[in-house]
Amino acid sequence: MAAIFACKATSFDLNSVYARSLSRPLAGRRLYCHVSCQKSSREIEGPFRTVRTVSISYSELKDKRLDLSPKVEEGFGPNGLGIISVSEVPGFSDLRQTLLNLSSRIASLPTNVRNQLEDPDSRYNFGWSHGKEKLESGKFDTYKGSFYANPVLDVPTTDISLIQRYPHYCRANIWPTNALPDLESAFKALGKLMLDVGLLLAYHCDHYVSKAMRINEDDLLQQILMRSRCHKGRLLYYFAKQQSEIMKDTGVSSWCGWHTDHGSLTGLTSGMYIKNGVEVSCPDLAAGLYVRTRNNQIVRAVFAEDDLAYQIGEITEILSQGHLCATPHSVQAPKGEESIGVERSTFALFMQPDWDEFLKFPAEIHHHQELVPPNGTLTFGEYSEALLHKYYNRKQ
């Protein structure tokens, strides 16, 4: 989610998937409105069906006596969307509102202030980043800006050699202490809450996977994440598009390109839409998060505005030997005249192993097979560096 990989490209034939989706009858489908548009009772017309994520209540998640394996399998298993939402998390709604309302303020800071918040030595994986990523087309992504920080550790390490080798994990946070003093506390509060909830979910993931394969205690997902210093939060601000840009948007990846998160578990808030400084409902019922399923279908995934969603990353799929599965996903921008001038904010927490965590790769993996050495062993830091090199040096 390094966090910068949250929008890397994934190659597949979108046109053929689109054609197959058109061939499926829409009659009889129950199509739900997006979380930011739930007041509308209209059904969504379009080629892609809408699916609600599997939901687990916070009280269920806290209870270690409950066997949540059926829900874990339904959401994260080989036939799932790779997403589970958690409802009724105490304090989450207020923390979400507070932080997301700050994203536009970061993006509107004076250029010289934003420049001071950039960290090119980390490949823009700390502080402010805008227009630094290359996506599906090979062009730089200027549709959104991001602010990155570790919500748990301001200084993950003081070891100079590690900072030089893994700058995208080991460098210190950069906060706009004078220009936007509220950001640090809001960012850390939401990030830590999402980490705590994610660790509870990881416990139940371990319980599910342990039924199918033997796992050493040190190799449990929850244990790997608890000892990690690599967690990274990403506050995203999607700039408002003008009429000429909206007319060009033709696909479901118009706001964020197709990608698969490379870490362990990604926490995600629902999006907040703003127009002229005022929060509004999403102006397009077809906008939002799209997922490509295991059978190459594209569906629109929805969860409640006050729910926390978690997506499986590539590393968890690898370490669970495919019992937990990562899925490619994208974000579609709203279309139509009412979408002109609409901004979007959201927050993601990339939960991932420590940079020195050794990963034993199976003989065959679905993601980046070419990066795995013959002995099948890499640390998470080495794996991440290989991915960074692959995507930042990709030719246009």
From TrEMBL:
<dbReference type="InterPro" id="IPR027443">
    <property type="entry name" value="IPNS-like_sf"/>
</dbReference>
<protein>
    <recommendedName>
        <fullName>Non-haem dioxygenase N-terminal domain-containing protein</fullName>
    </recommendedName>
</protein>
